[in-house]
Amino acid sequence: MAVLRVMFTKSKRNKLAQVLWILNWVSVVMGLVLIILGAFLKMEIRKHSEVMVSRGADSIPHMLLVVGAIACGINFLGSKICHDCSDAQRFTRWRLAMLPYVVCTFFFTFCILAGALMCYTMKSSLEESFNLGLKRAMSFYKDTDTPGWCFMKKTIDELQFKFHCCGNNGFRDWFEVQWISTRYLNLNSKDVQDRLKSNVDGKYLLDAIPFSCCNYNSPRPCIQHQLTNNSAHYNYDYLTEELNHWTTGCRQALLDHYTQIMQSVGLSVFIIWLFEISVLTGVRYLQTAMENVLLHGDPECESEGWLLENNFVEKAKTNLNIIKTLCKVNQVSTVSGMEDPNLDVKTAAYGPDNVPHKILPTTRD
């Protein structure tokens, strides 16, 4: 029994073909939208690639670009097929290619769905990418004279200004890295020498933060140095006055920013997938209806269209019987007295094993 059968008159088939022709052109536009979304996402990721470690974040925009290009080609071909399906004579040229087209398009739509789901599952990989990338970037903050890294100070400062953040997980991360270049340190100073010798790595560490961490909304002038020393500043308690600088870590700020973008892109891709599925459903009805027209041999007759020729239970039973039959092929029973049930060979009336006795002529006395 066919699944979701629908009767189509000639007029309904023609209208369905015309509507699907238009929808396939709309799907071509949807493919272009996928390409635009992929390009937009790639540009957004590239904006902050300096503070990211490659963790497969580029896989989503690349996938959207490829899927969008393929969608344009598939739906362009679908528009041509649906245009020709309005006439039974022109449908014959697509008859053999129609079913493979529907099957391939059905599996291709799951690539679009996979792209939508990936947008919602990339949060953990993005978080790890930003965590490692920001640690590396902060370690090169002081190297303004090092080729290849001289831009990192500017990048970090712009990032902290733009996203109102400080450090990787918080402002205290700056206490663990030497972010002041040695060219600005008086190495003859005893205080500097003591700080360089105070740790194993010989770094000049301070309880201080860069100026880009300052909260310009704070009524008090920004306190950058000796943040944990209450006696160094008048009427100051670092445990209660952290509003003097940004308290959110840049990792969380960037993660929130990209999560919002990913969710918006994922929702758009999911809507495109639903649209593609609806168009493919219509193409399947048109294909089966036109097949039945050719079987009846009358272009003016009514014909049935369906999604599946048999329901899932019948299809499963048919496949199971086929598998059982294949498993029994060439089986030979080892039990004495039992015959192979697959062998149903009839013995010939006359043959090597069934030869009638010859009747010898009798002699007359």
In short:
The model is unreliable at 333-338 and 343-348 (pLDDT under 50). Strands 1-2 form a two-stranded antiparallel sheet. By secondary structure, it is an all-alpha fold.
Textual characterization of the structure:
54% of the residues lie in helices and 2% in strands. It has 365 residues and is an all-alpha fold. It has a two-stranded antiparallel ribbon with strand order 1-2. 25% of the residues are buried.
Please describe the topology of this protein.
Elements: E1 6-8, H1 10-47, H2 59-84, H3 88-91, H4 95-121, H5 123-139, H6 152-163, H7 190-197, H8 250-296, E2 303-305, H9 312-328
Antiparallel strand pairs: 1-2
Defining key terms:
single chain, about 375 residues, mainly alpha, two-stranded antiparallel sheet, 9 helices, 2 strands, about 0% strand
Which runs of at least 5 residues are low in confidence (pLDDT < 50)? 333-338, 343-348
User: Based on DSSP secondary structure assignment, what is the total number of beta strands?
Assistant: 2
**Radius of gyration of CA atoms, rounded to a whole number:** 37 Å
Query: What's the story with the biggest beta sheet?
Result: 2 strands, antiparallel
DSSP helix count? 9
Strand content: under 5%
